[in-house]
Design brief:
- The chain is mostly beta strands.
- The protein has two domains: 154 residues, Beta Barrel (OB fold (Dihydrolipoamide Acetyltransferase, E2P)); 194 residues, Beta Barrel (YmcC-like fold), CATH 2.40.360.
- It contains five helices and 20 strands.
- Strands 14-13-12-11-10-9-20-19-18-17-16-15 form a twelve-stranded antiparallel beta sheet, with no helix packed on it.
- A hairpin with a 6-residue loop joins β2 and β3.
């Protein structure tokens, strides 16, 4: 027993993934170890996997300590076996947008489950048919049937690409685009309504329009152009049109930047000001008007509001993006000091919310 514990401790130091079959090796007794974090030379994605700057994790950690690891990203290699519906026992918010991939480790064939978005079913189904290994990044989610449950974060060695009018990939999951897509967001208490539409996918860009209406107002609708630019490291949204003064404008907004993990920071220029943004939450869930959204990523934007030469306020805007859905809303707050600003969990009201 002492020898086993020593091996386990050393393994935790080097952060290598060890997977065991839940049926043959119960949680807490590692039995015959197996390594998940290994690549097979010549496999698509193997070289990228080896060079991906992410740690691996022990099986024991994924089973026993997943609660402490939920916001951490890891890399791993698997053999995909089959795809099923997500069991209710996993209590996954927005589960209709996901499937459960049953997979096994490469050497011992020990079981592991991966929660994948429905947009990735085609990719993993192809791997199952060809009996090819898959290389992924993931975050721990829980345990099911004694085996670790992981949540897909990205597919290593798979470039962002466009297929039949759809932009897909790890980045695009949080701002997806498909020809014909339409969605609506409401600002304030129905003060303004923005209707988005995607008309064309070409290369790594999506083009469409944004129609702005003022319910109960006398002003005519305003229609602006919409351009979304995707790459492997960022998503930029550009709008153009005529403002309330009749002047032509064009605004560019860097809405997301890789890596999609807590602590990622970047600058975004808005209205001739540079805003500081940071990812402050991943894999969370929120509710808007009774609708549950899962796989939510939260971006915080800080700004300073100057009232006069002496008085100023510190403000934060929180943007929420749901995997497979896109932008779902934002919350705002302000305080006299930066330390007094509320976190996104402690703000009840939505300033902007999705309504489709």
């Amino acid at each position: 027993m002492i020898k086993k514990r020593t091996i386990l401790f050393i393994g935790m130091i080097v952060m290598s993934i060890v997977m065991v079959t839940p049926a043959a090796v119960p949680a807490g007794d590692m039995g015959d170890d197996d390594i998940l974090g290994r690549e097979v030379r010549g496999d698509p994605g193997a070289e990228q996997f080896r060079n991906t700057d992410l740690p691996t994790a022990l099986y024991s950690m994924l089973v026993e300590d997943y609660g402490f690891l939920k916001e951490r990203r890891f890399k791993g290699s698997l053999t995909a076996l089959r795809i099923t519906a997500v069991p209710k026992a996993l209590r996954l918010p927005g589960s209709r947008g996901y499937r459960l991939l049953a997979a096994s480790t490469l050497r011992k064939g020990y079981r592991v489950y991966v929660i994948i978005p429905t947009v990735d079913v085609k990719y993993f189904s192809g791997k199952i048919r060809k009996r090819e290994r898959v290389y992924i990044t993931y975050t721990p989610y829980g345990v099911y049937g004694g085996a670790p449950v992981l949540k897909l974060d990205g597919k290593i060695g798979v470039e962002e690409k466009v297929e039949k009018g759809v932009i897909s990939g790890a980045m695009a999951r949080y701002y997806p685009a498909k020809e014909g897509d339409e969605w609506k967001v409401i600002i304030g208490n129905n003060l303004r309504v923005l209707n988005y539409k995607i008309d064309e996918i070409k290369g790594s860009t999506a083009r469409g329009s944004v129609r702005e209406t003022t319910p109960g107002g006398t002003e005519p609708d305003k229609v602006n152009t919409l351009l979304i630019i995707y790459d492997n490291t960022s998503i930029t949204v550009i709008e153009g049109g005529t403002d309330s003064m009749g002047q032509q404008f064009k605004s560019s907004d860097l809405v997301l930047k890789a890596p999609l993990k807590i602590g990622t920071r970047w600058d975004a220029r808005k209205e001739d000001q540079v805003k500081k943004r940071e990812i402050v939450a991943v894999n969370t869930s929120v509710e808007i008007d009774g609708r549950q959204f899962g796989d939510v990523l939260v971006v915080r934007e800080d700004s300073i509001i100057k009232v006069d030469e002496q008085k100023r306020y510190y403000a934060a805007t929180y943007y929420f993006y749901s995997g497979g859905v896109g932008f779902i809303g934002c919350k705002i707050t302000a305080a006299d000091t930066p330390e007094s600003i509320k976190t996104h969990e402690n703000i009840d009201d939505w300033f902007i919310k999705r309504s489709d």
